[in-house]
Design a protein that fits this description.
Layout lengths: L1 H4 L10 H13 L7 E8 L4 H6 L9 E8 L5 E7 L4 E7 L10 H12 L2 H8 L12 E6 L13 E7 L16 E6 L4 E7 L38 E4 L2 E4 L2 E8 L3 E9 L2 E15 L11 E2 L1 H5 L19 E8 L5 E22 L6 E17 L2 E10 L4 E9 L4 E2 L9 E5 L2 E4 L1 E11 L7 E9 L12 E7 L17 E5 L12 E5 L13 H5 L7 E5 L21 H6 L9 E11 L9 E13 L30
Antiparallel strand pairs: 1-2, 2-3, 3-4, 5-6, 6-7, 7-8, 9-10, 10-11, 11-12, 12-13, 13-14, 13-23, 15-16, 16-17, 17-18, 18-19, 19-30, 20-22, 21-22, 23-29, 24-25, 24-26, 26-27, 27-30, 28-29
Bound molecules: nickel (II) ion.
Length: 645
């Protein structure tokens, strides 16, 4: 089809036309049946050498990857569609372990399944609800995990927990129904196992709502703060390509990861070939019936891209916004445009550099501006923002924003809650961890990168340290994959550099970028626990692998119900040489969350993330050429100082 071959670049996300063609070709395939659903459909990215060799105007290889779920049999089909030829190129039943993520249709179906089960209804009614309450009960289908229970093996499952609601607008998370968990077989459409503890904890009924009508009167002492860009933004886009200041990159988007940055480079030099968050996991630390199994993999079990919000002007971002609409396929293979899924804008970010020299009166200051490329995904109770920031000094930052509603547990009146923090009377928030893994396919100054580890260590007194003030910075090349599964260490300030040993910088070293991480706790669940086997990526802060296009996700292709062992620990078992090679740096970062009253009913944003900073990449401060911003205004109406920050 014409539309296929006129795509501008091999990494452009599938267009609406291409999505429609994929849906049509798959549905027309002899293997297709009406009970099949499309769980995820995306561009099948060409291999890296193909992309690097491509030049504008050349033919573009276009292919799509789609994973189908037969809701009647549980069969999973992996499909590749060749869009250039207009054919289904491969159609294979997935025989490995694990399941595709939970689809929208299942999300809705679980509520109907449990509410039509008399035993489940009886269990809920025993906890103080009446028949009339049942229609309003909120049912949350949670990814089931894998605990090796024999009756669960080989089935497609979710574990459903429930919440009382006084009306449709009521916040169910204020009213958890404790002690009842339905293990739902999504293929048989019935409850496989009903866990119904002896009734011990009443359902808390105090309403904790956050809809406009339930909020306190808005404060009145806030004056408007407007972002004005009378000449427009400083970025330019051409399709999915973005240019801003010295930066250049391409926007991509997948159902699993959401936003992807492709071919990110600065000043005409590559830095990262591909960057995204490929997995998340949120393990809970409450060992009781409703909670011990909760460890949602929000990317692989639900899909951060599939659950992306349509961002609204003036609400999520401020200023002059460029939105990207993202084509997708719904469960039935029908194209759907995700409006405003990705938001891009500029932000003032305080001072970038400044000096006042009292001896000669020179005073120069330049403000920092950053480009923000972001999206927000709502995964059940939580809302996660993913914000990539590019700075004028060559810094790259990823910031995760955690907000939304915490998981809750009902607590009997007067009882203590040993597994977390109380957020209201009779309502606790189980302690939990959030882990994210960013996959950074590096290309610092081109091909062939080396990762090294550095630490600050005191130097012993001696002839070479006669005053005791000297200390050292160690440097160690991570030569093979097994040696490169590393933990952060705040005491030694451990950091990593990704350098290009095939280039020489202005001071005779290899140009590099430095990975700056937060030494936050890793996975605290015990060795031998289910989540530790399944979320191996969360046991180290840094992993380095030799690029293999098949190694896409930190917890493997199918984390849903996977017994464990896939993903990064498996990738690095090969122990490939990573020095001066095509390397992927995987960084696990997160937040260990002990709940508190301020987290409820909606928690203020908690921030996580990391930075990549140029380190010998430029020969000097690369932002000396910034113009003086001007445009100051002084509060008293007088003349502003010439260089106020
Ligand atoms: Ni949390």
């Amino acid at each position: 089809m014409d539309q296929v071959t006129t795509s501008l670049h091999p990494l452009d996300p599938l267009s609406m036309t291409e999505m429609a063609e994929v849906g049509g070709l798959v549905r027309a395939h002899r293997g297709f049946s009406d009970t099949m659903r499309f769980t995820a459909t995306e561009l099948r990215e060409p291999a890296k050498p193909v992309v690097l060799a491509w030049r504008p105007g050349q033919a573009v290889v276009r292919a799509a990857r789609s994973v189908l779920l037969d809701t009647a049999t549980g069969d999973v089909i992996e499909v590749v569609v060749d869009l250039n030829a207009g054919v289904v190129a491969s159609w294979e039943r997935m025989l490995g372990e694990g399941q595709p993520g939970i689809i929208y249709d299942e999300f809705l179906r679980v509520g109907e399944i449990v509410k039509s089960d008399p035993a489940w209804c009886a269990a809920v009614l025993r906890r103080g609800l009446v028949e009339a309450d049942l229609a309003l009960v909120q049912v949350d289908p949670f990814s089931a995990g894998n605990f090796g229970y024999p009756e669960e093996l080989g089935r497609r499952l979710v574990r459903a927990v429930a919440y009382w609601r006084g009306d449709m607008a009521d916040n169910g998370y204020a009213h958890p129904i404790e002690g009842v968990v339905a293990v739902v077989d999504l293929i048989a459409n019935r409850i496989l196992t009903l866990v119904d503890d002896p009734v011990a904890i009443p359902v808390p009924r105090k309403k904790r709502n956050y809809g406009r009508a339930d909020l306190p009167p808005p404060r009145t002492d806030l004056k408007p703060l407007s972002i004005v860009q009378p000449e427009g933004p400083s970025f330019a886009t051409d399709g999915w390509e973005v240019r801003w200041q010295n930066w250049r990159f391409r926007v991509g988007f997948t159902p699993r990861e959401g936003l992807v940055l492709h071919q990110l480079g600065v000043s005409g030099r590559p830095v990262i070939y591909r960057a995204s968050v490929t997995e998340m996991v949120v393990p809970y630390a409450d060992p009781t019936t409703n909670h011990y199994w909760k460890n949602a993999f929000d990317a692989g079990e639900y899909g951060l891209g599939k659950l992306a919000n349509s961002l609204e002007l003036g609400c999520d971002c401020k200023g002059l916004i460029r939105y990207f609409d993202v084509p997708s396929l719904d469960d039935n293979g029908v194209p759907e445009l995700m409006k405003n899924a990705v938001c891009m804008h500029e932000e003032d970010y305080g001072i970038l550099w400044k000096h006042y020299e009292m001896r000669n009166g020179i005073r120069e200051v330049r403000r920092s501006r950053r480009l923000v490329i972001s999206f927000f995904a709502t995964v059940g109770n939580y809302d996660y923002g993913f914000y990539w920031y590019l700075y004028q000094d060559g810094t790259i930052q990823l910031e995760g924003k955690l907000t939304g509603i915490i998981q809750t547990a009902a607590v009997a009146p007067g009882a203590a809650y040993p597994w977390g923090g109380m957020v209201d009377a009779g309502l606790g928030g189980p302690t939990h961890q959030h882990f994210f893994n960013a996959r950074l396919h590096m290309a610092v100054d081109g091909e062939g990168n080396t990762v090294s580890e550095h630490e600050f260590v005191p130097r012993a007194w001696g002839a070479d340290n006669p005053h005791g003030n000297a200390f050292d910075v160690t440097s160690r090349v991570l030569g093979r994959e097994r040696d490169a599964a590393r933990e952060a260490d705040g005491r030694t300030g451990r950091y990593w550099k990704i350098s290009n040993p095939n280039r020489v910088n202005s001071v005779g070293n290899a140009p590099a970028y430095k990975l700056v991480v937060t030494a936050s706790p890793l996975l605290l669940a015990q060795e031998g626990s289910s989540v530790r086997a399944r979320a191996g990526f969360a046991t180290k802060h840094v992993w380095v692998t030799r690029y293999d296009p098949a190694e896409r996700f930190a917890a493997g292709e199918y984390p849903n119900q996977h017994p464990g062992g896939d993903g990064l620990p498996k990738f690095v078992a090969a122990n490939r040489v990573i020095e001066n090679s095509d390397v992927v740096v995987w960084h696990t970062f997160g937040h260990t969350h002990v709940c508190k009253p301020e987290d409820f009913p909606i928690m203020p944003v908690e921030y996580v993330g990391f930075m990549l900073k140029p380190n010998g990449f430029f020969e000097a401060n690369p932002a000396l050429d910034l113009p003086d911003d001007g445009g100051h205004s002084a509060l008293d109406g007088g003349a502003p100082a010439c260089c106020c920050g």
